[in-house]
Amino acid sequence: MKKNDVLDRLHRVTCPTWVGCGRYDDIAPALNGQAIIDRIPDATLLDEDGGHLFLAQDPAAWPHLAAFRAA
Asked: Which of 14, 26, 54, 70 counts the highest number of beta carbons within 10 A?
């Protein structure tokens, strides 16, 4: 099975990018989010309370996403 690894192409992303992650996510750890924003110019990382489903687990995450979209 071929892996889908696009880290070496993320520098091409030119639109505003919000990367959200859950601090307690054992499936996709916050270090993955950091690796993504390190490669996307002007990307924003918001680590929220919760796990893999942090948008469902942490109601405070929604206003952060809404503020990013409004900016």
From this structure: 54
